[in-house]
Amino acid sequence: MSDLTLTKTRLFEGVWEGVLSGEPMAGTTPEIEVTHHQDPIAGVEVIARPDAGDWVVRVPVPPEKVADGVQTFVIRDRATGAVLDSFALLAGDVLSYDIRAEMALLREELDLLKRAFRRHCLETM
Fold this sequence. Notes:
Immunoglobulin-like, 2 domains, 4-stranded antiparallel beta sheet
């Protein structure tokens, strides 16, 4: 079993990047696979950094995978099948409904707190 840890560093210009550390099976460069809805993502790079003793993982986000809703990408160690990390892209109208619902809840809670505070101030005078 491999002992790999993947830490996200950034998502920039359509490329997700992270640092992979640990010991892969058989002491070779780890084989990483990334999937979206069980479809493999092409162009994944694992670049060795000998001075740091780890690897940089670069995952290009294909434009055809960007769509309304939540799009989840899963990063696995191909040798063991272990999930190392995942990332999600949120876009479109679905997201706006979530934000509107959260804002409505926050407004309701704020109104409740304002009424309670005013009642408290009137009672303590």
